[in-house]
Amino acid sequence: MAVTETDIRKIADLARLSLGDEEVPAMTAQLNSILAHMDVLTRVDTASGTEAGSDAITSAIALARDVKSAGAPLRGDAVAPFPMNATAPMLAPDSEDGFILVPRLSTHEDV
Amino acid sequence: MTDWSQKYEMVVGLEVHVQLKTRSKMFCGCSADFGAPPNVNTCPVCLALPGALPVINAEAVRLALRAAIALDFTINLQSVFARKNYFYPDLPKGYQISQYDEPIAVRGTLRVRTPGETATHDIAITRLHMEEDAGKSVHDRYPRKTAIDLNRAGVPLIEIVSEPDIRSAAEAGAYLRTLKQILEYAGVSDVSMEEGSLRVDANVSARLHGATELGTKTEVKNVNSFSAVERSLQREFERQCAMLDRGEVVRQETMIWDASRGTVRPARSKEESHDYRYFPDPDLPPLILDPDYVARLRHTLPEMPRQLRQRFATEFGLNDAELDAVTAESSLAAYFEGVARAHGDANAAAKWMMGELAAALNETGTGIRDFPVRAPQLAELLDMVRDGKLSHTAAKGVFATMRSSGKSAPVVAAEMAVTQVGDDSQIEQWIEEVFAELPAETSRFRAGEKKLTGVLVGAVMKKSKGRADPKKVNALLSKVAG
Amino acid sequence: MRNIIDMTNDAAVRAADPQFGRDGLNIVVATNHESSLANAERVALAYGRGDAMSLPGMAIAVKDNIATLDMPTTCGSRILSGYVSPYEATAITRLRAQGAVVVAKTNMDEFAMGSSTETSAYGPTRNPVDPARSPGGSSGGSAAAVAAGITEIALGSETGGSVRQPAAFCGVVGVKPTYGRISRFGLVAFGSSLDQIGVFARSVRNAAIATYAMAGGDLNDSTCADVPVPTTPEPVEAYRGRTLDGVTIGIPTEYFPPSLDADVRARCDVAIEVLRGLGAKIVDVSLPHTELAIPVYYIIAPAEASSNLARFDGVRYGPRAADVSDLREMYQATRSRGFGAEVKRRILIGTYVLSHGYYDAYYKKAQSVRALITRDFDAVFASGVDALFTPTTPTPAFKIGAVTDPYEMYMSDIFTVTANLSGIPAISLPIGRVGGLPIGGQIMTRHFDEPRMFHVAAALEAALGGEAHA
To answer: In the listed set B246, B270, B291, which residue is the last one of a domain according to the structure?
Structure first.
């Protein structure tokens, strides 16, 4: 599964990274070289195990707590925001009247 | 205008987003209330500050389950929150946490009766999943800038996605009204399109009658009411039919409903190709539900409109129009039942609610929950009418004063001196007086001229300032005549 | 009480010493002397009042990706330049409650993506053992802070070995607790299913005390386990000097490949004999999927990172590119200028492996293989093995600038990533030096079996004595 320069441009766009024309060939080569090492996985038989790898950790937690399953813990519906010593507009590079401001999307839709 | 429905069939699927009625947000302890100044209801989690992590709100899960149970969904005892990745300034994390391939509920149904049709149609609902809302982007407040308010970011939503089972604009409207009614009964949301707690995206396509394959669909956006959904779907269907008829190809795109012109137009910006790169959110282990908990929720679910209708029909003998009216909302139904039980005459209760009460609610724009005259008080008023203590006309006036003063019916009636007099001796005295004042008519009446009854009753009513019970007056007069 | 303030003051002065700053070893990226002293005074007051504390007046250095209120948290990245977190990490709050005082933030590979602390926007950290060499990474600054004696304890974070590998390179103890043992709330995410806060210390005992001080369930982290935390420091004290009678230690053959550095192998052989001498039963075991760990890791970690780093968009915090005409340009300019080359490379890999048409082949496949790697460990532990002993790294510290191929750099995590992928706890401790360079040995145990891990490590540490640092 070789990555093409077109792929690189597309994923850079998805990730909102701009790559200069001169960077694209090098990045393409690097990604292909790295991904080539990943191809070994395609040869591994994983048919017997369908669980995601991280499920093992939840199972381990369940085991350690001696409970049947360790799903996501739930919080009660109390209004109790985690305290901060700054407000959102204070953190933002641009703000006015409490709003965070950003440059307008040039193609923004009017809905 | 061409009636395209003879040749083409409309195929509609609806995606409905419903805001859950929780106090706090989906994944943090910030208030989920509307109306705070911008960005006040924010914290490290919903601002997506570096290092912050989500924790699921138990009440959001409970409400999503209630909705799923009310809509006959199959509940998945294990569901998974995924990340839907895209960049937008009102999406602080750069991804929305949303259930994707393992939603909390699948395969629901909604029985819909389109107005004017007798048969019902079961619309299949593909899935119900939980997710968080985005913030709000305000484009027109500052020049060249978009203003971001993240108070809404992270508010819990459920998305209910129907199969493309809907076959007309009217059926889409019926689906939405029925869905709204059920969600309101289940008590999971304010379900107000005006306030944005219920939002609709409609997918529509057209195909020749008898065709088995679906046509290319478009998505209609910017619809702010159920009737706008119906009108926009009709317009978009007509547009597609005209294209198909000319041999043109319908493009998959987003259409914007322009309510002021009553037209649809393609979205101006061409949507970029989306690739949301969904994957299970590693910050959230699977949501695992205790089957006993789900069973308990199932048993504590209040009666749904269909069951309630059935019960009211058998128990109170209401007709369809009355049933429609008193079961429109769960709070109305509870009010009705309160009045009917306290008063005893369900038909009288229904009539009053459809007439005087509906008019009053319309006039003030309030819901039944905030209505000052509560069910027992209305029952008391209806009792007085039934017992002949108030005329129907006087009762209307008493009702109006009850609304403004909050006082009970007997108190208001006494204050207004409109209590009907049913006491025989008092009425007989008025009759004697009338006889004395109208000797000619009286003697002709006594001689058997029955048509004079009306004149005499009218005179008695006038003398009593409207308070004499006309039935009693009639009865006593006829005794004299007899 | 006076002592606590003096200790903090001394550490704060050391932390601000130019020899550890940008023009020196480049270990420390931020200090706040005033705030550290104020915190020390608070600790002194509480301690004087008789509050129980496991780390009274203990100065600590903290990796630059853990949220602190009084010093910036920049993850070694331009994109967070000057960012001061308005909230504090759970781990920091808990350490402060035990009397610890933060005196410095330490250098790191940008967003913890690296194994050498060379990708930092602040420039590379130098290894106090040999300034021409890398301290390892990504928590190189914290490892070096302990090695250089700035603090006795430092916090790092692990995603694939970012505490144990620099601990080995710098000759200190490094702990990666069980995934879920310590809250991640306030740790800037890299690979969320792998990330865990870890500890550097000069002794196993202090490492254990600090680990337990931070451990335990946290309602702000859904992945943090509400599993009982051992009391501290008694268990470690009890294990010290005791033999390892009745303890079975597995030696996984896959961690001793023919290509292993001869000096590393020799030191490991000595350590294994010491463990045997302490009474441990030594058995050869196999973890057959080990060779797949690096490919799996370098799919899962970048995938999660590509999503975790989307929030660095210039909207709500951090510097924003100003000379832009619209939102899209703002995103691209902010992110392209803010992130360094390695971070961009991993975001692109991660975006690619999650993108339409590749998800199943890469991400999903990697998760399935990850399950196989975890099962390898489960099987070995189920067979009666209590702990595993391996080298921490294939080589001692390499020279700064010596490793240029990204994949070759990734391979330095080969013995450490498996514990992150499976979530089990692991510790690296010094087992000797070769040519002046420290060699690290690694001990891994079952999920949440930190007591056993510290037991074996403390016994080995005590038995090796001065030899470990010789």
So the answer is: B291
The two structure tokens encoding residue B108: 């629901």
**Count of all residues that appear for chain C in the document:** 470
Q: Do B50 and C85 lie within an 8 Å CB cutoff?
A: yes
* Residue the block writes with tokens 């009338």: B434
Residue B467: pLDDT band with limits 50, 70, 90: confident
Query: For residue range C354-399, what is the model confidence (pLDDT) as tens digits?
Result: 999 999 999 999 999 999 999 999 999 999 999 999 999 999 999 9
Query: Residue B388: phi, psi to the nearest 5?
Result: 80, 15
Q: Where are the beta strands (DSSP E) in B143-259?
A: 145-149, 156-162, 198-208, 218-221, 254-258
Pairwise CA distance, residues C449 & A67, whole Å: 17
Pull the structure tokens for residue B404.
């403004």
Residue B279 lies in a domain: yes
Residue B401 lies in a domain: no
Question: With an 8 Å Cβ cutoff, is A93 touching chain B?
Answer: no
Q: Which residues contact C400 (CB under 8 A, 6 or more apart)?
A: C116, C118, C124, C126, C132, C133, C134
Question: d(Cα B185, Cα B180) in Å, to the nearest integer?
Answer: 9
B196 and B99 within one domain: yes
**Nearest residue in chain B measured CA to CA from A75:** B57
Q: Contact C255/C391 with Cβ under 8 angstroms?
A: yes
Q: Taking a C-beta distance cutoff of 8 angstroms, is the pair B232, B257 a contact?
A: yes
Cβ of A61 within 8 Å of Cβ of C180? The answer is yes
Residue B1 burial (10 A CB sphere; 0-12, 13-18, 19+):
exposed
The residue from B341, B367, B391 where one domain ends is B391
Does residue B275 share a domain with residue B312? no
Residues B10 and B158 in one domain: yes
Task: For B74-89, write each residue's pLDDT tens digit.
Answer: 999 999 999 999 999 9
Contact A38 C295 (CB under 8 A): yes
Compute the average pLDDT of residues B11-23: 98
Residue A1 near chain C (CB below 8 Å): yes
Q: Which of B87, B148, B287 to mutate to test the interface with C (most CBs of C within 10 A)?
A: B87
* Domain interval for residue B377: 303-391
- List active site positions of C: 63, 138, 162
Q: Which CATH superfamily is domain C2-238 in?
A: Amidase signature (AS) domain (3.90.1300.10)
Residues of chain C with pLDDT under 50: none
List all residues of chain A from 68 to 97 with a beta carbon under 8 Å from chain C: 70, 72-73, 75, 82-86, 88, 91-94
Number of domains in chain B: 3
pLDDT, residue A110, reads: 45
Taking the C-alpha atoms of residue C95 and residue B466, their distance in angstroms, rounded to an integer, is 84
Q: Which residues in chain A (26-85) have CB-CB distances under 8 A to chain B?
A: 52, 54-55, 58, 69-84
Which of C89, C222, C304 has its CB closest to that of B51? Answer: C89
Give dist(CA B135, CA B89) in Å, integer.
8
Q: Tell me, which fold does domain A1-44 have in CATH? A: Histone, subunit A (1.10.20)
**ipTM value of the model?**
0.96
For chain C, state the CA radius of gyration: 21
* pLDDT band, very low/low/confident/very high, at A111 (cuts 50, 70, 90): very low
Least confident of A65-79, B76-90, B145-159: A65-79
Per-residue pLDDT at A57: 63
In angstroms, what separates the C-alpha of C226 from chain A's closest C-alpha? 7
Looking at the fold, whether B38 and B100 belong to one and the same domain comes out as yes
Asked if C354 lies within 8 A of B52 by C-beta distance, the reply is no
Give the pair of three-digit tokens for residue C463: 């038995």
Q: Nearest residue of C to residue A53 by CA position?
A: C371
Domain with residue B446: its CATH number is 1.10.10
Q: Which pLDDT tens digit goes with each residue over A23-33? A: 999 999 999 99
B186 and B122 together in one domain: yes
